[in-house]
Amino acid sequence: MTERFGPVADVLHAQVDSGRLPGFVAAIRAGGRTEVLAGGRLALDGDARTEPDTLFRLASVTKPFAGALTLGLVADGVLGLDDEIGTWLPELAEPRVTARRGGPLDETVPAERPITVRHLLANTAGMGWSADIGPLADAMEERDVGPGAFGTDLEPDEYLARLAGLPLSGQPGETWNYHTCSDVLTVLLARATGRRVGELLDEKVTGPLGLTGTAFWTAETGRLASCYLPTDGGLELVEPPDGRFAAPRSFESLSAGLVATAPDVLRFFCAVVDGCLPGTAPMTHDQLTPGQLAAARDFLGPGRSWGFQVAVDTEPVASWRTPGRWGWDGGTGTSAWADPARDVVGVLLTQRMMTGPHDEPDAFWSTVYGCL
User: Fold this and answer.
1) Residue 90 burial (CB count, 10 A)
2) Mean pLDDT of all residues in the chain?
3) Most exposed: 28, 29, 83, 358, by fewest CB within 10 Å?
4) β-sheet bridge partners, residue 227
5) pTM as predicted
6) pLDDT band at 1 (very low <50, low <70, confident <90, very high)
C-alpha cells in the first residue's frame, strides 16, 4: 500500500508509461515506516509484472556489500586495515607505477609503499579506471580487466595475473581510481580465508540479515528482470534472465556481481545505519585526503567524497544531498542511499542501464525528499 510516497510511485509509473523504464521496484524507509512500490514488466516482450520480490542485477550497488563484508572480517581479526595485500596477493607485492599519470606504460617507477587493505577499501591503491589514465585504460580493456556492469567472467587467478601485468596509474595512497579495487578485494578475501566469497557474504551479511534474494546467481530466473541499454532506437536487450547470472560464476565479483531484491537492499542499508553489522561504522565516513579527493572529483562530481566502498555526500548541492548521506548507484539502473540525518533510506532498482553520470535517477530522489 502506498501512502506517504504515493507521488514517488506516480513519477515512476509515468516513466514506465513513457517507455523510459520497462519496470521498477522501489523500497523506502522513513521515520521507521517502510513502503515498497512496484510497476511495469520484467521484460518488454512479456506480460509478467514486477513484484516486490523481483530480482535485479545490482551492478555497482554491489560495492557497499564489499565494504561491509571486508570490514566484518576486519572486526573478526581475519585481516587488518593496514595489512599489506602482498601477504595474500604476491602478484601485487611489488607493483610498478607509471612515471606520470596518464603516461606511457613502458615508463614506470617502483611503488613507494605497499598497497594495503585500506587502500583497496577507499579506492586509493592506484589501480582502476579514471578518465585521465591514458593508455592504461585501453590496456585494461584489451586484457578484459576494465570496469563492467556485470562483473568479470575470468577465473580469479587469471584476472589478477592480467591486472598485475599492468602498472598502477598513481602511487598507492596518493590518488583515486574507480571499480578495480573492489574486484581485487574479491580475490583477497577468498585467499585470506580459503573460502568462496559467496560463502563469506552469506555468513557475515546476507544470512544474518535474512537477505534470501541476494546472491551472485539465481536459479529462479522467472523472477529476474531482463536488462536493457538505451539506444537511439529504443531499449536494447543486453542481458536476458537466462544469461550469465543463471548459473554459478567462477568470479563472485564484489564490484558488480550481485542480484537482489529492493527490500533486501533496503534491509542491508538499514542494518548499516542501525549499527547491526559489526565493524561497518567507518564505511560511511569520508576517507579521502584533499589530494585523493582532487583525483576523484571529476568522477564523483561536486559535493561528494568516498568512504569504504560507498560515496559520501559532503555538501548540499541538491535538495536530497544531505551532508553525511551515503550510498551508490549502479550502471544497470540501480540506486541505494541512506541519509541518517533525515532518517530516510531509499532503494530504486530498474533494468534500464545508465548511460552516464547525467543519467542518475534524480526525479526519484527529488520526489522522495519532497514527500518527507
Assistant:
1) 12
2) 96
3) 358
4) 239
5) 0.97
6) very low
For 118, the enclosing helix (H) or strand (E) is helix 117-122
Angstrom distance (rounded) from CA 32 to CA 34: 7
Cα gap 270→281, rounded to integer Å: 13
Cα 121 from Cα 338, distance rounded (Å) = 19
The single-letter code of the amino acid at 193 is: T
**Is 250 annotated as catalytic?**
no
Query: What percent of the chain stands above pLDDT 70?
Result: 99
pLDDT digits (tens, 9 = 90+) for 349-362: 999 999 887 788 99
Residues ≥6 apart with Cβ < 8 Å to 312 = 284, 285, 286, 304, 305, 306, 324, 325, 326
Across the range 79-107, mean pLDDT stands at: 97
The DSSP output letter for 204 is: I
267: exposed, middle or buried (Cβ count in 10 Å: 0-12, 13-18, 19+): buried
Catalytic residue from among 18, 60, 226, 366: 60
pLDDT in tens, 197-219: 999 999 999 999 999 999 999 99
Q: What angle do CA 220, 225, 226 make, to 5 degrees?
A: 115
